[in-house]
Specification:
The protein is mostly helical. It is built from one helix and no strands. The protein has a domain of 46 residues. The longest helix is centred in the middle third of the chain and has 151 residues. The radius of gyration is 62 Å and the shape is rod-shaped. The protein starts with a helix and ends with a helix.
């Protein structure tokens, strides 16, 4: 055996040792990849029904939102009707206020005149009574003076 052959055998032995040393981690890596593949398959099997349930839930939510939208459209329609009724009530209120102003102005002027006339009558009657009372008092005083003069002249 020559030195080249021995070197070849040593190199082959070293290569064999390298293959054996690398085979163990590669086998372990294979087990890890297999476990990861099983976990992914298991996750896929479990995620399928969950995603189906999510799709059903989203469809139900979309249906509910459609119903809410329809309801809101109905509410908006009713609010528009109420708005119209409120506008009509506002017009009626304005008309009643205008009518009240007209009636007040139509009745207030004669009432003011009647009140002023009544006040004038009361005042004139009071002055007349005061004048009558004053005339009576003057006549009484004059009569007393005359009576005193007659009594003093005798």
């Amino acid at each position: 055996m020559e030195a080249g052959e021995i070197a070849g055998l040593v190199a082959a032995g070293a290569f064999l040792m390298l293959v054996i040393v690398l085979a163990v981690p590669i086998l372990r890596l294979r087990h890890t990849v297999d476990a990861a593949t099983r976990a992914l398959n298991d996750l896929t099997d479990r995620a399928g029904p969950i995603l189906g349930n999510v799709n059903t839930t989203v469809d139900n939510v979309n249906t509910a939102l459609g119903q809410v939208h329809t309801t809101l459209d109905g509410v908006n329609l009713q609010l528009a009707r109420i708005d119209t009724m409120t506008g009509h009530a506002q017009q009626v209120t304005a008309n009643v206020a205008n009518l009240s102003t007209v009636v007040t102005s139509a009745t207030a002027n004669p009432l003011v005149k009647a009140a002023a006339f009544t006040y004038g009558l009361r005042r004139a009657a009071a002055k007349r009574r005061a004048a009558d009372d004053e005339a009576e008092v003057r006549a009484t005083i004059k009569a007393e003076r005359k009576a005193r003069r007659r009594g003093a002249a005798r």
